[in-house]
Design brief:
This protein has 94 residues and is an all-beta fold.
Length: 94
């Protein structure tokens, strides 16, 4: 005879893997050509000089250099002003 009641099954226990989004290289750090700087969905950060957008909206360096972040003011469709961060790569000159 069983001493414990049958527990039944649960419908929990599943979750998707995280996407590992975010900044991978910060301002002042050096990068190689083709190295990913930011993983993102949509253009939260915008590409600047020597930076390109990948198919999944990630930003990557087109040349080897030093990362630099700047901000610009933009006018939102709601009428208020906001700041947009732009990512640049300054080439290393030898």
């Amino acid at each position: 005879m069983a001493h414990t009641k049958a527990g039944g099954s649960t419908r929990n226990g599943r979750d998707s893997r995280s996407q590992r989004l975010g900044v991978k290289l910060y301002g002042g750090q050096t990068t190689n050509a083709g190295q990913i700087i930011i993983r993102q969905r949509g253009l939260k950060w915008e590409p600047g000089e020597n930076v390109a957008v990948a198919g999944d909206d990630s930003l990557y360096a087109k040349v080897a250099g030093v990362i630099r972040y700047t901000q610009k003011r933009v006018l939102k469709f709601t009428g208020h002003r906001a700041r947009k961060t732009i990512v640049h790569v300054d080439p290393i000159t030898e």
